[in-house]
Every structure is written in structure tokens, then in C-alpha cells.
Amino acid sequence: MSEKRKTIPSLVKDPKLIEKRREQIIEAAVHLFINKGFHKTTTREIARASGFSIGTLYEYIESKEDVLYLVCDAIHAEMETRLREAINFNGTGLKILKLAIRSFFRVMDQMSDRVLLIYQESKSLPKETLRYVLGREEEIAQIFVEILQKGIADGSLRLDEKHVKLMADNIMVLGEMWVFRRWALHKHYTLEEYTEKQITLLLREISVSD
Amino acid sequence: MSEKRKTIPSLVKDPKLIEKRREQIIEAAVHLFINKGFHKTTTREIARASGFSIGTLYEYIESKEDVLYLVCDAIHAEMETRLREAINFNGTGLKILKLAIRSFFRVMDQMSDRVLLIYQESKSLPKETLRYVLGREEEIAQIFVEILQKGIADGSLRLDEKHVKLMADNIMVLGEMWVFRRWALHKHYTLEEYTEKQITLLLREISVSD
Amino acid sequence: MSEKRKTIPSLVKDPKLIEKRREQIIEAAVHLFINKGFHKTTTREIARASGFSIGTLYEYIESKEDVLYLVCDAIHAEMETRLREAINFNGTGLKILKLAIRSFFRVMDQMSDRVLLIYQESKSLPKETLRYVLGREEEIAQIFVEILQKGIADGSLRLDEKHVKLMADNIMVLGEMWVFRRWALHKHYTLEEYTEKQITLLLREISVSD
Amino acid sequence: MSEKRKTIPSLVKDPKLIEKRREQIIEAAVHLFINKGFHKTTTREIARASGFSIGTLYEYIESKEDVLYLVCDAIHAEMETRLREAINFNGTGLKILKLAIRSFFRVMDQMSDRVLLIYQESKSLPKETLRYVLGREEEIAQIFVEILQKGIADGSLRLDEKHVKLMADNIMVLGEMWVFRRWALHKHYTLEEYTEKQITLLLREISVSD
DNA sequence: GATGAATGAGAGTTCATTCAT
DNA sequence: GATGAATGAACTCTCATTCAT
Questions:
Q1: Is the pLDDT of residue A210 over 50?
Q2: CATH assignment of the domain containing A111
Q3: Most buried one in A156, B174, C8, D109, CB count within 10 A?
Q4: Has residue C1 been placed in a domain?
Q5: Chain A residue with minimal CA distance to B202?
Q6: Are residues B96 and B58 in the same domain?
Q7: Would you state the pLDDT for residue A72?
Q8: Same domain (yes/no): A191, A146
């Protein structure tokens, strides 16, 4: 179902070192891309901010686009990790769902710079790679799909199976909205207010009892 | 409230001619930006596609970013025009709201390339300009705010005044979602199905009767 | 029979100007390539020696290899022109042949730097282009083929038709030898001595009378 | 007369090992240079194809140019060895000469890739080194000089002493021509036909009887 | 003696912008 | 008002060479 993860060739042999250096690259590039955008960040800046020379940078990647891929993938990985860590899968689907939404919105809030980065820059990835990165997004949506299905199964949620995916997408989008429209929303709401309000809206329709 | 529209200086005196040429520029650039992205489109390409020389292009703009601004502004203008044309402000707030949502979703669908363009490229605008462009987005949200307020006033909608802006934003976001997630959504829904489903979700909470 | 001449695209429209600038490029590049070799000459050096900026250079070529092609082609053109100008096609084949050999050897001598350049650098051309350039060499050999055939026809040369091409190649190669082995040959011979000696050798076999 | 062979310093002490490793380097580099050319072959590729690391490569050479020198020298050595092995120095000068020419042309044919390599890449050698490599060429020409002189001495060849060197050069050049113009010559001749034809041409003038 | 990660000068190429015509 | 040739800073990427381990 999901595209296979891209493996970026490296001229360096030691896998431990590759991982370490790529973490440095990601750490450096995330901040640069957030502040200047992908196109306005130069490979030299990435190298310098990573703590090594331009030559060394290219020992660990093949092209600037590879850095963007590494960054996007790392962000998604962190999003998913944080989300999964925050969710406790005990209790009714409804209960889990509420927890998951709160967690997701919180993760969006904490990672808003990086979420924005993905949305604004991932289009610069090569087509093939872009598909994979978009696929990671779907994996996160899938978490909500599963929770919703659990809720349907245990009777705590009433929702046509047909609309499960849409509901999952709605949750995702309303979470991302907190990021995209923060300049407007932060004026009126705290994260908590926003979260509770959206939960009310989203669940009114589908929760059997709350 | 809203930022003042930016005036791009031109070396040319005749305002009629300026408008005509800028329309040519916008027409050409929209397609180029959609297909290649802002950064990968060259000013030479814009000039050629506009039907004149690079020198002439720079008689009507001061920088490449100006073209992006013209394009974003034109897209917003078209969005707003289409939306306003489609809405009939007669009837209860609830009725108008449904019509407006349907219209907005349809406009999003029809203009999806251009909507995407704004979301992906507007970040390349100079800060000041970006603020103005984001402001245009608010103007559209404002349409929904007004409709919601009318509905509250005439009793067809039950919604805390405090949440009006959020509801308007939700509508916008769910409309934009049809664009951003089209690769996922189009598999499961037609625009009409999607629209009705989301209307149900959005209004369940707030409509007094439907 | 011969490959079609390559047309290098230019960003500049005026054909007169293209020709003029390319002449400048060729003039500059020939000397640089002779002195430093193709690989050790930078595009910046070519631009500077041509009298304009690197940006301007790239208005008239698409790649550094294009410069090499221009240079090789110009050298061949000059070789052929000089040779054809020097040959008088009146008289018996034998007489014309002797004149042609002397002319060819003289041209080789005068252009020895450039002949060397072609032999040492043309391999860096893209395959397709290389084929064309090698073809030009054949066109020159063809001059000798025609003279030989004229001599056979008028009875002044006795040579199996089958060996005409080989004889033409031999003439070419012995002319080029004056270039490739000049470090050895110049110690022992003047150009004139060398020429007469080789003519004797080459014609002993085939001339009916001299 | 001939330049002294260049001695490449090595960080390694053991002469046996140096020789072994350099043979590996030559073997690897010859093929790489033939296929990609000297400039497009990287030292990393040479090391890998040699079977060891880049660091080890530089234990046995001081620069990439050293590899080119090793390669050119090895090719010349092989040429000379093969030629000397094939020649039987018994008989009249004329007889030996014919044998030598046939052998030389055959060696040229068998080693054509490598002969071409020397002609196209040796110019990239440092001036000093180049002189030595070109000198090796002379040593081979010297073989023919000696044979010619033997033929003059024993009366089987009639040739002005003054022209001996030229005749030797002619032989060399016509042999190399089989390599340089193979794309043209192979269409018309087998190696044997070519050889016999050229022998006829070359000897007509000088052989007392054949 | 062998390794391979690190280096950085320097390469070819692009393209937004200018300005003389 | 229109043109398009000229500019050169800035870009991504390469690769011969070094040296600590």
C-alpha cells in the first residue's frame, strides 16, 4: 500500500556514521528551511550549519533534494512517534478518539514550523519521492481510521463505514488548520479552546454518548 | 483592518496599457507557475509566454516577486468574484449558508490548480506582501462570517457569537481540503457527495432546523 | 554520406551577431586549448579571452563542449579552404597530385598546433558530434581521392581503383606525421625536404612518368 | 639520448609489493582510461577497480598523473616486448624488415585500444614526463632503424643513410594509421591486405629484390 | 601497510536584472 | 514603449588529495 522508503546512497560506508551525520544534516536543514525556505537555502549553508564542509555534505547525500527528503521524512517520523506515544489504546473508541485528537492537535501545535515546512516545500521533491512523502501523511490518517473503526465496533461511535476515511481526513485537516491559520486563530483561541471546540463539532455527529 | 493593496510601480504611463499588459503577464505566469512552480519558472519564460520581450516585462514589474504577487492577487480576486456571483443573499442565513458552502466548494474544485499555487508559492512573497495576500483570504472568510451572523440574527442558526469566526474558518478549510487531499478524496467521493457530507457535519451542530 | 553539421542553439537572435561572437569565441578558445588543453581551460577563461562575460558566453553556446565543436569545425573549415585555394585543378592528375600533396603538407605545417588540437581533444566531444567531426576529415581525404581518380582516368597515374582510398589515406597520414612527429622530424628535415622525399616514396609506385 | 625513466616515490618500502600493487593499478586504469578517458576517470574508480582503497592507492603513487604515466609506460613496454618477441633477427635485412613490419602492424592491431589511449591522453602528462614517454616511442622506431641499417649493410636494401630515420618513421606511422583510421580502413581491408599493400608501397623504393 | 572520512578549491552553468538602442 | 544583448553573482556539485586511526 504505502510506497517504499527511499534509500539515499552514501559514499561513506559506516552506517552508524551515516546516521549520525544525516541527523546533523536534518537538524541543520530543518531550521534553515523554516527560516529561509528550501530554495533560498544553499547547500553550503546546510553544510556549514551541519558542522562540516560542503564536500562532506555530499558524502552523505547525492543532491540538495535528498536533504529535503531527509527533512520531510524525519518530520513525519517525529509526528507519528509523538502521536503514537501520546495515545493510550485502552478504553472505548470514543475515549481513544478524543485523546488522539487532543494529542494530534498538540503535536501540530508543537511542530507547527515543521508541519508548515512540509506543506510548503515538499512540492520541490522529485515526483517519485513526493509520492512517498504524501504516503506518510496517509499513514497518520490511518491511525484515526483505526480508532474510528474500533469505536464503531465497540458501539461508542456511530458512523457509516463509508465515511470513516473522510472523518479521519477532517480530523487531520482541522489539526493542520491550527497551523496554517494560526495567525488568525491564535487571536481568538488558545490551543485548548480550539481543540475542545473542534472535538465538539466533530463528535456531535458521530458519538453515541459523551 | 485589511492590509492595503500593493501598488507596483511601472515605467509605463498609460494605465490602460499597464492593465492590459499585466493581464497578459498574469495569464502567462499562472500556467507556468502551476506547471513548473515559481522558482523553476524564469522571467524569460514569463516574458515569452506573455507575448513580449524580457525588457518589456520589466517595464511593467520591478521584480519576479511582483509577478507572483500579481498572480496571487488575481487568483484571490477571481475566487471572491466567483463566490459572490454564486451566492444569492435572499432567504434565511441557513439557506444562504448552504448555498455559499456549495458554491465555495465548487469554486475550490474549479480553481484547484490555482488554489494550490497560492498555498505552495505565496511563501516566496516578501513578508509585507505576503501579509496582504493572506489578508485577502480573510476577506473571503469574512463572507461566511457575515452569513453566519445573519443566520444567528434571523434565528435560523444557533451559534455562539464567539465561535462564528471558527466556523467560518472550518468551512474554508474543509473546502480547501478538497483541493489539498484530492488525490485521496477523489477516490471515494464526487464533489457533490463530499459537499453534502461536510455540510451535514458542519450544520448538525448549529442549524436550528434543516 | 557525411553527417549533417550540428547547429548550436543560441539565446541571441541576430545571426550576424551570433557569427561575430562565435568567431571571437573560436579565436580565444583555439589558443587556450592549444596552450592548456580543453579540460584545463575554464569557461571563464574562454569568456574573458573572448572579450565578454561568462554570462554572455552562454548566450552563444549551450555547453563547454559546444566550444570544442566550434573550434574543431573551424579548424577543419580552414584546412579545407586553404587546401582548396592552393590547388590548381589544371593539368594531369599526376601534376595536380604533387601540387596537392605539397599544399597539404604546407597547410599541416602552418596549422600544426590546430591539427594537434583536433587529434588530442576531439575525443572529448559527445559521440554524435565526434562522428561529424571525423567526417570532415574524410571530406579532405576525398579531395585526394578525386585527384587520384583523375590521374587514373587521364593515364598519368597507374593505380588499382581498389587502392585509391588507401593511397589518399596514406597521403593524409604522412602529412599529419609532419605534425605529430615534428619533435623528431624537424631535427633532420626542412618541410621541403620532407615533402619531396615523401612524394618520391608515394609516387614511385604509382606515377607513370614524372 | 633517451630520457631517464621516471621513478615514482612510494610510501611503501617493500619493492615487491610496490610492483605488485602498481600492476594492479595499471591493469585497472588501462581499462578505465580506454572506456572513459583519463579526465573522466576518478581516482576513486581507479582505487576500487584496483581492489583497494583510495588511501592505499596514494601509498603507491603521488598523483593521478602518475597513474597515467604508469599506464603509458606499461603500454610501451608491452608494445616493445611483443614486437621484439615476434622478430627473428636472422636473415637479410630485407627479410627481417618485412617480418618486423608485419609484426608491428599486428601488434598495433591487437593493442589498438591502448595505442589510441597513449595518443589521446599522454598530452595530460607533465611536460617532463611526456618527453620521456615520447622517447619510448623513439626506441621502437629505433628497432626499425637498426633493421634498415642491417639491410643496407648486407646489401638487401638500397637506401640513403640520410633517409633511414624517415623510413622508420613512415613504417611507424603507417602502422599507427591502422589504429587511428580503423573506422575507415576496416571497411575496405583486412589487416593482412592492409599490411601487404603498405609493405609493397614502402619497399618498392628501397628493396633491392623481393 | 591499509583505510576511508574529510576537505575545499574550483568547475560548469543559470538567470534576474539592466540599459543602450 | 519595446527590445534583447550583456552582465556577474550565485548556485549545485565534483574530485584529487590528505591524514588520523
A1: no
A2: 1.10.357.10
A3: B174
A4: no
A5: A201
A6: no
A7: 96
A8: yes
What is the residue range of C140's domain?
Answer: 71-206
CA angle at B6 for the pair B4 and B11, rounded to the nearest 5° = 150
Q: Indicate the number of domains in chain A.
A: 2
Residue stretches of chain B with pLDDT short of 50 = 1, 210
- Find the range with the poorest average confidence among A107-116, A173-182, D43-52: A173-182
Listing DSSP states for chain D in one string gives: -PPPPP----S---HHHHHHHHHHHHHHHHHHHHHH-TTTS-HHHHHHHHTS-HHHHHHH-SSHHHHHHHHHHHHHHHHHHHHHHH----S-HHHHHHHHHHHHHHHHHHTHHHHHHHHHHGGGS-HHHHHHHHHHHHHHHHHHHHHHHHHHHHTSB---GGGHHHHHHHHHHHHHHHHHTHHHHHHH--HHHHHHHHHHHHHHHHBS--
Residues D49 and D96 in one domain: no
Same domain, C196 and C148: yes
Of A144, A39, A145, A23, nearest to A74 by C-alpha is A23
Is the same domain home to C117 and C175? Answer: yes
- Asked whether residue D3 is assigned to any structural domain, the reply reads no
CA–chain centroid gap for D147, Å, is 18
**CA–CA separation, D187 and B39 (whole Å):** 53
Domain match, D15 and D87 both? no
With touching defined as 3+ CB pairs under 8 A, do chains A and C touch? no
Q: pLDDT of A161-172, one tens digit each?
A: 888 988 999 999
DSSP one-letter string for A167-182: HHHHHHHHHHHHHHTH
Contact A37 B166 (CB under 8 A): no
Q: Do A88 and A177 fall within a single domain?
A: yes
CA C37 / C1′ F6 distance in Å = 28
Asked if A166 and B173 come within 8 Å (Cβ–Cβ), the reply is no
Residue with cell 480553481: B111
Mean pLDDT within A59-81: 96
CB pairs < 8 Å spanning C and D = 74
Nine-digit cell string for C161: 581503383
The model's confidence at residue C1, banded by pLDDT at 50, 70 and 90, is very low
Q: Which of C173, C183, C205 sits opposite D204 (nearest CB)?
A: C205
> CA of D141: which chain C residue's CA is closest?
C184
B42: CATH = 1.10.10.60
φ, ψ of residue D157 in degrees (nearest 5): -125, 140
Buried b (16+ CB within 10 A) or exposed e, C62-74: eebebbbbbbbbb
**Angstrom distances, CA of residue D140 to CA of C177, D2, D12, D100, D133:** 16, 12, 32, 11, 12
